[in-house]
Amino acid sequence: MAPELTSQQLEEDSHWWFASRTRALLAMLDRCVPGNNLRVLDVGCGAGNMIHHLSRYGDVLGIDNNPMPLEIAHQRGYDARLASAEDMPFDDGSFDLVTAFDVIEHCDDDMQILRECSRVCAPGGLIAITVPAFQWLWSNNDEINEHRRRYSGAQLRTRVSEAGFVIQRMTYNNFFVLPMATALILTRRGSQREPQLATPSTDEDAYQVEMEPTSPPINAILTAVGRVEAAVLRFASFPVGTSIICIARKGPVLVAGQSADFVQ
User: Fold this and answer.
1) What is the DSSP letter of 65?
2) Mean pLDDT over residues 55-59, rounded?
3) Is residue 197 within 8 Å of 146, Cβ to Cβ?
């Protein structure tokens, strides 16, 4: 059993990568999401780390196929249910906003998940997706986290479009850390040495997220970099980065005043 939480916050919440992803997503979603009374589905919700943030847009329901993080989500007071992303137990058009944050890269059939997201998304509703970018950035982190692939912007755009969505915003993120990440990955690849990733608990029965250890000073610096990047993403897109953020609308019509941003 997972240990009883004494706080709403998990170790991963303060890790620079998770914190920066959250800020970047909210910077973009705040400009695309119409209102704060939506029906929201968080696919692959884990321990519910994004449910609190997504609640600014409405009532949030999370699903995950792993019962371990769901125990923690329930302790945190979130509505999170055990369900498969490939076959969701919801009626067509049940949600106004569907999110899948770093989910589809774990699955053999990513198109099946995107089609299910489209099915449960209401006409005119939104989907928000994040994925790791560029297959040439493949590292031991991808292996440990059981990724099936990394994506280019063109590949993700094709999949999202084939699932029935029209892209509103799509951009790479972690732009400023890409040179450092690339150098680190290539150096480790050449030396055949990979670090052991840290986890928030030594309890084998507890939910654990694989994270590369980061010293407090470096974590603070990278968190500050993420704040700058999120500010930029409110109004502009990046041409490269270690991840991709995509926001798309179900159906062929763009909302007035919004433009489609594309990356290759």
Assistant:
1) S
2) 97
3) no
* Cβ–Cβ < 8 Å for 211, 15: yes
Q: What is the pLDDT of residue 37?
A: 95
| Three-class SS state of 253 | coil
- Measured from the Cβ of residue 13, the count of other Cβ atoms closer than 10 Å reads 15
Of the listed ranges 33-37, 130-134, 194-198, the one predicted with least confidence:
194-198
Q: How far apart are CA 185 and CA 135, in angstroms?
A: 12
Residue written as token pair 């067509």: 92
Distance separating alpha carbons of residues 193 and 214, to the nearest angstrom = 17
pTM (two decimals): 0.87
The full set of domains in the chain, from first to last, is 11-250 (3.40.50.150)
CA angle 26, 32, 33 (to 5 degrees): 80
Nearest CA among 56, 59, 65, 71 for reference residue 10? 71
* Strand-pair category, 58-64 with 80-82: parallel
Beta bridge partners of 101: 130
Predicted local confidence at residue 251, as pLDDT: 84
